[in-house]
Amino acid sequence: MPSRLVVGAGSTARAILDGISGDHDRLHVLTADEHRAETLREDGISVTVTETYRDAMADLAVEPATVVVATAEPAANVTAAEVASAAFPDAYLLCYAGYDATEAQLLRLRAVADRLIEPEAVVRDHLSQSIGSAGTRTRQLQQVLRDIDDHLAVVTHDNPDPDAIASAVALGELAARAGCEVSLCYYGDISHQENRAFVNLLEYDLVNLDPEDDDALDAYDGFALVDHSRPGVNDQLPEELPIDIVIDHHPPRLPVEARYVDLRSGVGATSTLLVDYFRRLDIEVPESIATGLLFGIRVDTKDFRREVSPEDFEAAAELVSRADMGALQRIEDPSVSGETLAVVGRAITNRREEGSVLLSCVGQLSDRDALAQAADQLLDLEGIHATMVYGVLDGTIYISARARGADIDLGEALRDAFGQIGSAGGHADMAGAQITLGVLDSVDDREESLHSIVSSVVNDRFLDVVQSRSHRLLGRMNGRTEYATDGYSELTGPGSDEHDTA
């Protein structure tokens, strides 16, 4: 262990000493206070009582790797810092300015210190975190959490992705600290192998709600939604269910009602918003939660290439030192299921290209998350700027769309195409939709196969919207208007679930 020298034994220095590990063999303290020196010696710390730092530092048997100067007097700190800088030029020098330090003293400390702590600046920073709109927002969240009678259900969107899961876990931690019993809930499945590895490796305890169980929600006294904003829209909660908390980064299409609402569409991930709460509440993010939040940000921003903001970078930088990077590596390299490979194969075989748009119906599914991976894979084909892959599972058509280098908003396009007959939405470059097969009962030709019926309805609706928006994806398409082939920048991350159906 590298040696450490601490100059001072007052309250600030003592707080620093208390934060240092219990191994004091390589720790030495210089102080002018004999009484405090005795107290430190009783704790097994080596102490020299002196008012002349130069001689005391020269007498040290081992040159320290770190020097902390933290007396209560600014003048004494300046003297000690300058002596330590000259005596131990290779040591890391951390200096505490002390209250009421003059500008001249601060300049001298800044000239020699590797890191200078100014108490007035610390107070200002703390106040800036506590007041203003951001501080008010944090206090309001705390108040609502404290008002929950007992048991809070934090609910993700259906078939949650890493951003939704990590945000739920993080909000659950804040709720538990506020005195709530917490359950982290979702409807649907976590079927993508990367998402399953994410949950299993980080040992997140999630509750899979049964939509057929009418009494399942009676166990909860409050409800929070993360990564989506309305009950009954991309979750299977009752639409009229009162919601206590909503935290989401997707812009809503309709007003959102809850006791506390935090909608910040300027960031790339809901996980970024949760990091902000931990920071403002001065709570260190536990390792498993930091790992999840970092992965959530990376997936939702396509490794910081899609809809990323400065806040996303700042949050990720804060999480890196606390996250388990080894676990992240294992999460990102899971095995691929045979069903996923089969779906990708059918998507390639059944593909239909219209200009730079690729459409593919893969038929019956057993794993809806395989659609997202197929849409990602097909986007790599030369000349393709947008893909839409879809299939049928349990009486529902699931659609996954991806785009790059094109001038269309996929989320809006899918809403226009399928919003009236199902639910749809997402990002500009990554979107999805769901349509129940019941709406296809009006199809006249009963001789057609299910595959043909689904393909006809889905393809025609989507292509009609693409053409009506007059963007430049289609090129020459079955005698329709010719479009120049241009693109729009839309990327997505592996493992993402399309979920913005509001």
UniProtKB/TrEMBL annotation:
Source superkingdom: Archaea
A family per Pfam: TrkA_N
Ranges where the DHHA1 domain occurs: 356-442
Residue ranges of every copy of the RCK N-terminal domain listed in the record: 5-118
Protein name: DHH family phosphoesterase
Domain (DDH) ranges: 153-297
